[in-house]
UniProtKB/TrEMBL annotation:
PANTHER family in the cross-refs: ECF RNA POLYMERASE SIGMA FACTOR SIGM, RNA POLYMERASE ECF-TYPE SIGMA FACTO
Top-rank taxon: Bacteria
Domain RNA polymerase sigma-70 region stretches: 24-91
Record family assignment: Belongs to the sigma-70 factor family. ECF subfamily.
The protein, known as: RNA polymerase sigma factor SigM
Coiled coil stretches, renumbered: none
Gene3D superfamilies given in the database record: 1.10.1740.10, Winged helix-like DNA-binding domain superfamily/Winged helix DNA-binding domain (1.10.10.10)
Short name of one Pfam family: Sigma70_r2
Length: 195
């Protein structure tokens, strides 16, 4: 027996199949989780946003029109849930963690340095405007085609391209120290002198 495709599973769920939605989530949960986590940057909030999104998809499956792929529809719901949570979180004050400036240059194949770089990239992504961050995560990190991301975000293709270009430009400045470790010290000494 052939497994059902995503649209057939969603139809089966709407028609009352108690296992269809679980199968659909099982197929796509890892990518949906990755989008949620990278968009929000905090595993607890990402888990809550994903849970809210899946509950919303479960309840609103009957409204799926079939204009987009089911995965696109699910991603749009997850992204919207993340954006809602980010907006709510922005109303609460946060205090950034102090930066550790005493790191030695990374050695090749150094897993600790790789983890530090990943944390630097994650922190830089978190500083981007939400629209740019979401576009970059979906296009560059998740590898979705720009047209699909435009559909997920309900914006024009050019808007996605523009958001990605602006986000990449900001990341290049924020992460320039990764290419040139002395750049961080130069920027900090300049900022310190300007105060």
């Amino acid at each position: 027996m052939q497994p059902l495709d995503d649209r057939a599973l969603l139809r089966a769920h709407v028609d009352g199949d108690p296992d269809a939605f679980s199968e659909l989530v099982r197929r796509h949960r890892d990518r949906l989780w990755a989008v949620s986590l990278r968009t929000i940057g905090n595993s607890e909030d990402a888990a809550d946003a994903l849970q809210d999104a899946l509950l919303s998809a479960y309840r609103s499956a009957g409204t799926y029109r079939g204009d987009a792929a089911v995965t696109t529809w699910l991603h749009r719901i997850v992204v919207n849930s993340c954006l809602d949570r980010i907006r709510r979180r922005q109303s609460r004050p946060t205090v950034p963690l102090p930066e550790d400036d005493g790191r030695a240059p990374a050695a090749p194949n150094d897993p600790i340095a790789a983890r530090e770089t990943a944390l630097d990239v994650q922190a830089a992504l978190a500083e981007l405007p939400v629209e740019q961050r979401v576009a970059l995560i979906l296009v560059d990190v998740q590898g979705h085609p720009v047209a699909d991301v435009a559909e997920m975000l309900d914006v024009a293709v050019g808007t996605v391209k523009s958001r990605c270009a602006r986000g990449r430009a900001r990341l290049a400045v924020m992460l320039g120290h990764l290419r040139n470790p002395d750049a961080r010290n130069d920027v900090e000494s300049t900022e310190g002198g300007a105060r």
